[in-house]
Amino acid sequence: MTVMVDHGADQDFAELADPYRRELYAHCYRMLGSVHDAEDLVQETYLRAWRAYDRFEGRSSLRTWLHRIATTACLTALEQRGRRPLPTGLGGPAEPEGRLGERPELPWLEPVPDALVGADGDPGTVVAARESVRLALVAALQYLQPRQRAVLVLRDVLRFSAAEVADILGVSVPAVNSLLQRARAQLARSAPAEDRVELPRAEQKQVLDRYVAAFENYDISGITSMFTADAVWEMPPYTSWVRGAEHIGRLIRSNCPARGPGDMRMLPAAANGQPAFGLYMRGADGVHRAFHLQVLDLTGSGVAHVAAFFDVSLFPSFGLPAALETVSG
Question: Please, what are the averages of pLDDT over each run of 10 residues along the chain (329 residues)?
């Protein structure tokens, strides 16, 4: 049997749907908290949409239709998955010299590369897109029930109307408003207050250059000086986390494999609208290999939070190599 393929329809679908890919990826990431799951769900969304495109009658916009498919796929996926936490969501701070508890089996929250979720357009749109995927916000979204999460993201981030969200979820407008009210209240309780004063670009570069130099020189006092007094350091899959600049310095001194200058090297990245670095640790053979990915919350007072992700399978998503070339000389 010969299967007839309408190449014209395929081309039309691709041209019309592809501009929404990054927006849909960001939506799936906010819902699921995982770059790997978001990629899978975006692929599933486009496959479902392509198969159903000949039945799309245009009663809603293509954007709304695609988000209906993506949201349905995300809600189905969340039926089999628990929330993705960060260590700070599991308990209180630990002693910096204590034994590090490890839970590699947990589905931890993952960072997302800016390149996959960034927005084009005017500066205001770009800033809003970055703010909507900040690590603290995505972590807080994990505390919401799946439908609450969907309504909050669709209404407050993507700016769909209550009627459009009702259509996407197949519920009434009053139900959407009720879900949104509860979601906002829960988010206000779980989302931490942040010092959101953004440094000018030149000043931010200077601060980050000093931060990198302190690590690469294994300067513990220099590292400690970069953090605010109540800064937080956490590092999934380790459940232990510490609060306070001095405790962060003691944690690094007692647990970091580095022993001197040159043991660590760092490459810049960008994650969740925040500065990030891939940290490489020198092995016995002199080769620096991927060790962890740091995502920084940089405030006007210093570094307020670092999430150091020890899942090195994240490095390729950020365009970071698995190992660095040996520096001679």
Answer: 48 89 96 95 96 84 95 95 91 87 94 85 62 92 95 96 96 97 92 66 93 98 96 96 96 94 97 96 96 95 96 96 80
- Plot region of 56 (φ>0 → left; ψ -120 to 50 → alpha; else → beta): beta
∠ at Cα 40 (37, 46), nearest 5°? 140
Q: Which residues 6+ apart lie within 8 Å of 197 measured at CB? A: 299, 300
CB within 8 Å of 236: residues ≥ 6 apart: 86, 87, 106, 108, 109, 307, 309, 310, 311
CB-based burial, 286-301: b 16+ in 10 Å, e otherwise: eebebbbbbbbbbbee
| Long-range CB contacts for residues 220-226, cutoff 8 Å, separation at least 24 | 220/249, 220/252, 220/253, 221/249, 223/248, 223/249, 223/252, 224/248, 224/249, 226/302, 226/303
Measured distance CA(298)–CA(70) in Å, rounded: 32
5-14 burial, b for 16+ CB within 10 Å, e for fewer? eeeeeeeebe
Residue corresponding to tokens 């049997």: 1
Looking at residue 113, the DSSP 8-state letter turns out to be: B
- What is the rounded CA–CA span in Å between residue 7 and residue 226? 57
Q: What is the value of pTM for the model shown?
A: 0.90
